[in-house]
Amino acid sequence: MKKILLIGTGGTIASVKSDKGLTPGISPEDMASKFASRFNCEVDSKVCLNLDSTNIYPNHWIEIATIIHNNYDKYDGFVITHGTDTMAYTAAALHSMLIHLGKPVVLTGSQIPLSLMNSDGEKNLIDTVHYASEGMAGVYIVFNSRVIKGTRAVKLRTRSNHAFESINYPYVAYIENSVITYYTRPDEPKGDQKPVLETNLCPDVFVLKLYPGINKEIFQFIADHYKGVIIECFGSGGIPFYEVNLADEIRELIRLGVVVVLTTQCLEEGIDIDLYEVGRKIDKDKVVISNDMNTEALVPKLMIALGKFKTMHEVIHQINLEIVKESIEYQF
């Protein structure tokens, strides 16, 4: 029988009512014990954190990744219960921190706590354990019967059970009555070596969403305080240059050594900076063009690259390699 490690980090799924509102209070041991008869494998448990996921920071990603790495040889897969608000960021971070991962690492949570009636947490947890014991290697989110690649998940809904969508990538699989139906199969790593753990993160990253009327002085603030910035452009890559020339501000950031990543505010279909004149104002060889990758995945990728490499060129090259790999893995 396969063995799975259930790692608890808190979140709605583990929450109970209190005078201060919902707060994490159910341990992973309680979850494992309550649903042991419903699991198709042996499940051990370990507490990592007990936080609302709005309080998850990059140092917590390191704690989660380290537990997986330290226990890698003991288990066939790993399940992480996590709050939904930052789950997509954590999934993308683990994807980049556990290099050459050869086992399933699967995150789940719920919109309604396990402690309340009509919770979606029971099905999500059982589906996730089942997928971790039989699924493919890699990092995934299992939620509302759907399996989503860890670098492609975005939380779109605040209350519905169908909280997450897979952006610019098909669902990996669908789970119903413990039957896994695959829609696509991401490339699996070759060999059974232990993954390389990457923990050098630089959190000095700013996410800037452009809007009509934005004050260009924000760019000087970014230059003074951050090493990297992800700019969510308009549409296919639009950057204002008429009354306020933000293209010049971006070029100045680059000159000052800030790594610039350009993405779009649109969730689907990605960025094409060459399509319009407004996008061609930027030298694309000196920035990262995100293609169709979402911000939740770009944030940890940029933090990890900034922590690992010393020069702007190395950081840009590394992120571009990862984006290209993601883009060619599945072609629409």
UniProtKB/TrEMBL annotation:
It comes from the Bacteria. Its EC number is 3.5.1.1. PROSITE patterns: ASN_GLN_ASE_1 (PS00144), ASN_GLN_ASE_2 (PS00917), ASN_GLN_ASE_3 (PS51732). Substrate binds at residues 53, 84-85. Residues 3-186 form the L-asparaginase N-terminal domain. GO terms for molecular function: asparaginase activity. One of its GO terms (biological process) is amino acid metabolic process. Keywords: Hydrolase. Transmembrane segments: none annotated. It catalyses: L-asparagine + H2O = L-aspartate + NH4(+). The keyword Hydrolase applies. Residues 204-315 form the Asparaginase/glutaminase C-terminal domain. The active site is at 12 (o-isoaspartyl threonine intermediate), 12, 84. Belongs to the asparaginase 1 family. Homotetramer. This is asparaginase.
